[in-house]
TrEMBL record:
Gene3D superfamilies: 1.10.1040.50, 2-enoyl-CoA Hydratase, Chain A, domain 1, NAD(P)-binding Rossmann-like Domain. The keyword Lipid metabolism applies. One of its GO terms (molecular function) is NAD+ binding. Pathway: Lipid metabolism; fatty acid beta-oxidation. Monomer. InterPro entries: 3-OHacyl-CoA_DH_NAD-bd, 3HC_DH_C, 6-PGluconate_DH-like_C_sf, ClpP/crotonase-like_dom_sf, Enoyl-CoA_hydra/iso, NAD(P)-bd_dom_sf. This is Peroxisomal bifunctional enzyme. GO terms for biological process: fatty acid beta-oxidation. PANTHER family: 3-HYDROXYACYL-COA DEHYROGENASE, PEROXISOMAL BIFUNCTIONAL ENZYME. Pfam families: 3HCDH, 3HCDH_N, ECH_1. It is found in: Peroxisome. It catalyses: (3S)-hydroxyhexadecanedioyl-CoA + NAD(+) = 3-oxohexadecanedioyl-CoA + NADH + H(+); a (3E)-enoyl-CoA = a 4-saturated (2E)-enoyl-CoA; (2S,3S)-3-hydroxy-2-methylbutanoyl-CoA = (2E)-2-methylbut-2-enoyl-CoA + H2O; a 4-saturated-(3S)-3-hydroxyacyl-CoA = a (3E)-enoyl-CoA + H2O. It comes from Pomacea canaliculata.
Length: 682
């Protein structure tokens, strides 16, 4: 709703629709009612639109987009109706922005005559992140206000533009210091009686059409181009046509799911009843990191960038110096890529202390252990930390495979600690997902199935570049073999040998089964040939030089695979695109269902979020679990059973019971309800 009040000559429309003042139907109606009052009240000479609570206006209500097209389109008053009324008003309309003015929120500002904001405010058109375009005249009005290149950047990137930058472009008229409402009322008095015609964007010509030809390839860009080529009315009509097309498409559907999935994933809860809403995080001010390798230094950079002082500890002085150099280089690179200023880099380096003595961690609030994957070493470190650190310090471990319960606390972790870590993750700009301990955790456990199947597929007849291309066409940023070359083939081989050693087994090039499971020794063959990936200039591909980035398909690899298969008597065949996609994706998805079944994650959305951030799974596909829900669980289940029959020695093909039960439900169960099936009779 919109609260209406008057302060002298000025009518104030305060948008009051918590939590983020989205433009639901009652808010839109509130604008119409408010405008009617203000227009008919001779005392009112100007109108201020302001948001109540934490933000100005976060745009249209995204939940409305799931409604049928007819209902969506006929839901009056539309944003454009309101916009037209604002623009045509004979009394100046001033938007006073704090928090965020996004999507329809910014569009309303562009229909208004003046725009003021506090310094911390942000504006933007994030619609591309929902698979649509700003369709309440955003693509027609922004290019009439700012240079077309700026409009294209803002619309096609979806980025949030900070108030000072928006002021520079002319999106804002003024940045306000002090009380936003008071200052806006002063501003309103200063513009009463001034001509409004030059402030009505629809009457302005689009600013320069330079540059657009080369980048117009998507609907947003086409639409912005229309602002230059067509009349305002024709441009609007096309914008509406594109919107109707996009909003009914799969990508927009998946992107809207992703928007809410990310927010749902933040809402952690523990069996005790503690959750994100009822548990207060502790205040973390100082941090320590143990281990100056790739992980430790990477984490240090994130903490320093977020403004935390870091004490980096490494037992060996030479490794410590290398680690500090690595941190310096990453920060310098950030400066050269204009991600931070030189001054900021200096502040970060000043906040970094390096030591070879764990005792320097005595007073820190949070310690992250990031040494290599060796349980005894980790346990020894935590024993020492128990004595050294203050009792309230949080002790965290960075591990991808070691059972957290054998290391630091897992099952015993307090709700307060969980709340603090989740909050800390957000503060350092990361997305944190709460998972229970399980072998390889969620990401590596699922991705392991994906990678393993990819390797089996090579043994059966496909080539690395073929498999990679198919998965990249699907939307993954890099296929599994390019990823393997990047990570280093030696790394995965060493881990495999380490695990085998723990079971008193020696892996050789002839090994075809390991602990009752089908096993491929193909990577070990590359390892023995010194083809370790990018770093040696050869791996599953060849590269222009050691450390090179251009993956070139290599004929030699064909021979390596052929010899491997001949020696082991593995028959090769033609493998279809469908089979490659299904085996990589469905094996991981089936494992994902087992992960939900075991309660390792609280909800399927958690898995999808992990896959976007961990592996770059395309958000416009929603994530592996959403993808499965859209493919049809019956189809996924049937194919999992089919592969299980054909590949009985791979436990990742044993069908998940949850998947089976969901696949036999009389009606498709929405992804948000999957968990309920765990406790039902289905
Ligand atoms: C045509 C298309 C038009 C005209 C459009 O306007 S499309 C919508 C464009 N706008 C957006 O995409 C903005 C989306 N929102 C955000 O980016 C952020 O919410 C925020 C920057 C505005 C605030 O961020 P933050 O303070 O971190 O809060 P949350 O993101 O956690 O959001 C709080 C709750 O509000 C729900 N929400 C947010 N925006 C919308 C929206 N536009 N429609 C419906 N609901 C929205 C969000 O899901 C959170 O809900 P809960 O999880 O708490 O239930």
């Amino acid at each position: 709703m919109v609260d209406y009040r008057k302060e002298g000559l000025v009518a104030i429309f305060e948008v009051n629709n918590p939590p983020v003042n989205s433009l639901s139907k009652n808010v839109r109606q509130g604008f119409v009612d408010g405008l009617s009052k203000a227009t008919n009240d001779p005392e009112v000479k100007a109108v201020i639109i302001i948001g109540k609570g934490r933000t100005f206006i976060a745009g249209a209500n995204i939940k409305d987009f799931g409604k049928p097209m007819e209902e969506l389109m006929s839901s009056s008053p539309s944003l454009i109706d309101i916009g037209n009324m604002l623009e045509e008003s004979e009394k100046p309309i001033i938007c006073a922005i704090h928090g965020a003015g996004l999507g329809g929120g910014l569009e309303l500002c562009l229909f208004s005559h003046y725009r003021l904001a506090v310094k911390s405010a942000r504006v933007g058109f994030p619609e591309v992140n929902l698979g649509i375009l700003p369709a309440a005249a955003g693509t027609q009005r922004l290019p009439r206000l700012v240079d077309i290149t700026v409009a294209m950047d803002i619309i096609s990137s979806g980025r949030h533009v900070a108030a000072p930058e928006a002021l520079k472009y002319g999106i804002l008229d003024q940045i306000v210091e002090g009380d936003l409402l008071k200052e806006s009322i002063k501003f309103a008095h200063s513009v009463i009686g001034k001509p409004l015609e030059p402030r009505r964007l629809r009457n302005l010509a689009c600013k320069s059409i330079l540059y657009c030809i080369s980048v117009i390839h998507q609907f947003c860009l086409k639409s912005v181009r229309n602002a230059a080529d067509l009349s305002y009315e024709a441009g609007l009509m096309m914008e509406n046509t594109y919107f109707k097309y996009l909003i009914t498409g799969f990508q927009s559907f998946a992107l809207r799911y992703s928007f809410f999935a990310e927010r749902t994933a933040r809402k952690w809860q523990l069996p005790s009843g503690a959750n994100a809403a009822n548990t207060k995080p502790l205040n973390v001010q100082t941090t320590g990191i143990i281990g100056a390798g790739t992980m430790g230094t990477g984490i240090a950079v994130s903490l320093l960038r977020a403004g935390y002082p870091v004490i980096l500890v490494e037992q060996n002085q030479e490794f410590l110096d290398k680690g500090v150099d690595m941190i310096r280089n990453i920060l310098k690179d950030g400066v050269s890529r204009r991600l931070m200023t030189e001054d900021r880099m200096k502040q970060c380096l000043k906040a970094l202390k390096a030591s070879v003595d764990l005792k320097h961690l005595a007073n820190v609030d949070l310690v992250i252990e990031a040494v290599y994957e060796n349980i005894s070493l980790k346990q020894e470190i935590f024993k020492k930390l128990d004595y050294i650190c203050k009792p309230s310090a949080l002790l965290c471990s960075n591990t991808s495979s070691i059972d957290i319960d054998m290391n630091v606390y897992g099952k015993e972790t307090s709700a307060e600690t969980v709340a603090t870590i989740m909050d800390f993750g957000k503060k350092i700009g990361k997305v944190s997902i709460l998972v229970k301990s399980c072998h390889l955790f969620v990401a590596n456990r699922m991705h392991g199935c994906f990678q393993t199947e990819a390797k089996f597929i090579l043994e059966e007849g496909a080539l690395p570049d073929e498999v990679d291309r198919i998965l990249e066409d699907f939307g993954m940023p890099m296929g599994p073999f390019k990823v393997s070359d990047l990570a280093g083939i030696d790394i995965s081989c060493r881990i495999q040998h380490e695990v085998a050693k723990q079971h008193d087994i020696e892996l050789t090039l002839q090994t075809r089964f390991f602990r009752g499971e089908r096993y491929s020794s193909l990577s070990n063959r590359l390892y023995e040939l010194g083809r370790l990936g990018r770093k040696t200039g050869k791996g599953w591909y060849r590269y222009e030089k050691p450390g090179g980035k251009n993956a070139i398909p290599d004929n030699d690899i064909k021979d390596v695979i052929r010899i491997h298969c001949k020696e082991l008597g593995i028959e090769q065949r033609q493998i279809s695109t469908q089979e490659i996609l299904e085996r990589c994706l469905y094996s991981a998805i089936n494992e994902g269902f087992k992960i939900i079944e075991e309660g390792v994650v609280d909800k399927p959305e958690d898995i999808d979020v992990i896959w976007w951030y961990g592996f770059g799974f395309p958000r416009y596909m929603g994530g592996p679990m959403f993808y499965a829900s859209q493919t049809g669980l019956k189809k996924v289940y049937d194919r999992v059973c089919y592969y299980h029959k054909n590949f009985p020695y791979s436990s990742h093909w044993v069908p998940s019971d949850l998947l089976r039960r969901l696949s036999t439900a009389p009606n498709p169960v929405p992804i948000t309800q999957w968990k309920t099936v765990l406790h039902s009779k289905l």
